[in-house]
Amino acid sequence: MTSVCDTLAYYLMPNHIHFLLKTHSEEVIKKHPKYELDFHKLVMQQLSNLLNSYAKACNKKYQRRGATLG
Fold first, then answer.
1. What is the DSSP letter of 63?
2. How would residue 70 be classed by pLDDT, with cut points 50, 70 and 90?
3. Which residue among 2, 17, 26, 68 is least crowded, i.e. fewest CB within 10 A of its CB?
4. 3-class secondary structure for 14-31?
5. How many CA atoms lie within 13 A of 11 on its CB side?
């Protein structure tokens, strides 16, 4: 699948993550199979999928479920 951005850097911390991303041009993203005339919506959906997958992997690794209280 065509990506919507390049990861320039990331930093994993104990309780969160930082990403430095560079989105591809709109011309490149228009070629994405899921593009539906909304650049912003596609980029945000792909980033949402990435972050949700990361959270699920962390929760599985540490056997966590549900909300936690600080």
1. T
2. low
3. 68
4. CCCEEEEEEECCHHHHCC
5. 3
Q: What is the mean pLDDT of the chain?
A: 85
- Closest by CA to 5, choosing from 36, 61, 49, is 49
Please, are residues 20 and 4 in contact by the beta-carbon 8 Å criterion? Answer: no
- For 27, the token pair is 């011309």
Structure tokens at 60: 């599985």
Nearest CA among 51, 65, 49 for reference residue 18: 51
Residue 68 pLDDT level (bands cut at 50, 70, 90): low
Dihedral angle at the C-alpha atoms of 55, 56, 60, 63, nearest 10 degrees? Answer: 60
H or E element: which one contains 37?
none
Query: 18 has which bridge partners?
Result: 11
